[in-house]
Design brief:
about 200 residues; 7-stranded mixed β-sheet; globular
Amino acid sequence: MHFFHRIASHAIADHFASRRTFINIINLAVLDEIILLKFKEAIICFFHICACEKNVSIPKYLRATFRVKTSMYTITRIYSDANGDSHFEEVQVDLHEKGEIGSLSDTIPAGDVIFREVPPDYDYDFHNAPQRQLIILIDGEIEIETSLGEKRTFGAGDVLLVEDTTGKGHKTRNLKAIRRKSLFITLPDSSLTNVAGN
């Protein structure tokens, strides 16, 4: 098995210099199915070691090739269509295994961080988001209604990607009579554009 680990080490080194070299090594490995299986095992093992010790993530094309599983973080997107109507959509952010510290997403460019607290009777009629932003609910429970009348309930720990900066907007109200806390993280136009629906 040490032989395959040495091959993996050289392949990974080549990956950072040339993806084509890496693919060529895989093509040579298919000459023997058993060797290929061991080769895959060695590559995956190598990357997991890197992820744990060197904070190196497994490239997306390599995860697809070897079926290395990643987990997903589901958030709810609120956006406007061409007619200005608002909609909900479940979107997912890839998480990559990082060993003992858990699974992490790639770094996401962000702007300002805004702390917010609203009164117990908060009931905000239809409005647009002031900018693209993530809203992280800290406590309480809310109901959001789209312009088409669809309603969803969200609570502590839920994350919203709010993008309906134009159109008919959405409506939000407290479902629990508490001073509810949340956190806004503003996003540049180029951020979080690779999730489903964007």
